[in-house]
Amino acid sequence: MGMAITHAIASGMGGMRAAGDLVARMQIARGMKIDEAKAHVAGKLKCSVSDLTDPILMNEARDELGLGLLHPYGGSPKCMEAKFNIAELLEIDVNCVQRFRSHLSASNL
Amino acid sequence: MSTYFSRMGDGSAIEVTAEEIKADLIEGSEDAADRGNIPPLSKEEYQHLLDIFTTRAKFVSVEPGNEVILTYDAGTLKIRRVGVNADRTLALQIYEKLLGADTMELSHVDYSYKPVKAIVGFEQPVLEQALLSTHVPLFYGAQPNLGLYSQPDGPFPNPAELLPKGDIKGAQASYEASVEDLVQDIVYIAECMIESGADGINLDTTGAAGDADFQASLLAAEQIRAKYPEACIELGMAGEFVLGMHSELTYQGERLAGMYPHRQVKMAEAAGASIFGPVANTNTSRSAAWNLARTATFMKACCEAASIPVHPNMGMGVGGVTVNDHPPVDIVSRSSKAMTEICRLDGL
User: Fold this and answer.
1) Best mutation site among B58, B63, B66, B67 for testing chain A: the one with the most A CBs within 10 Å?
2) What whole-number distance in Å separates Cα of residue B197 and Cα of residue A36?
3) How far is B103 from chain A (nearest CA, A)?
4) What is the tens place of the pLDDT at every residue in B236-276?
5) What domains lie within chain B, and their CATH numbers?
6) Are the C-beta atoms of B320 and B338 separated by less than 8 Å?
7) CB within 10 Å: which end of chain B, N or C, has fewer?
8) By residue range, what is the domain housing residue A43?
9) How many domains does chain A contain in total?
10) Residue B191 forms contact with A (CB below 8 Å)
11) Which residues of chain A have pLDDT under 50?
12) B6 beta partners
């Protein structure tokens, strides 16, 4: 509690509770510094940078775009399904998504 | 005169005046500036730190819009360490769903690359299944841990036994031989995990065994980057400066021994690292204010020098955080806010 939760609340972006995982993906996939990564994600979500840590607004956006939800419901995209949508939205290659595709036979694509 | 609750670097509670806090902030920053040959903090930054330390709130946070990305080392280990009987995939789900993690790292309980080599075939399916049941970017990580390559744990003569005998050349030769084996092990495991779908590879606590450990990490990052141009490689340090255990090792013509974070990051960039994790160590006998100002001075210089994202280590005993297994929320939140806002971090 002292370390992980404190940092997450004091200065973190909230992970998939908001859009922290999406901003992280831009640092990982493109090596973007924080301001550029936030601007890229905000542009794709059509929101302001300050909205990226708002859990209410981000939950609505994630639901609409199929990006995975903190509280998933029956039929909502989850996990790998959500990562397919994240890769497409952010226009990045996600390694496990690429691998998943490569493991499917052509008739299943 | 008003006093404020604060702590020493070991976590023990103290009562201090604003004047005492300010004096410690200046002294801590000037210590870092002197050691690293970098600028101390500005008057405005001292005032910002003083404001953070003199707020009566137990918990403080960054202003909205200043949030940064969190990366983790040994996250899945930390769930087991406290005795929670969760397997690693469940631990990852706990972090992403319950702890607000922006990213996560899968790791083996023996958190070093060498022991993972023998069981990597068992680690890959765990990673692959974890990737199917999580959302946030997932790293695979371990420590280079060069110490495992010398006797009695490894094949090469132990430099810690050779150096007291005056066999400097023998110790240096042992380090150099160890570097070759360590690079092979790191690259092999990184290849396996990237082929299994990892979003990134974390080389955590690099330089723990000194300049040879850091050199091996840089060479491994270079080889991983050459084979996987798109892969994310996070390289985190063990300490604030590189110990010269060999003392004459170089990378791209630069002597590694004695490097501080603002120079280490240039080595990481040259090696192809995607994210750099610098360290400033906590001095247990100095105040939290002294430690935090000192850390912020090192990290600010590092961030200004960096062209890749910088995520300083801010766990127990580093990054202005107290040395105690039970880090207090008051100091961790003050360190988190101060470092993020003063150093313009990309993450932590």
Assistant:
1) B67
2) 25
3) 6
4) 999 999 999 999 999 999 999 999 999 999 999 999 999 99
5) 4-343 (3.20.20)
6) yes
7) N
8) 4-108
9) 1
10) no
11) none
12) B14
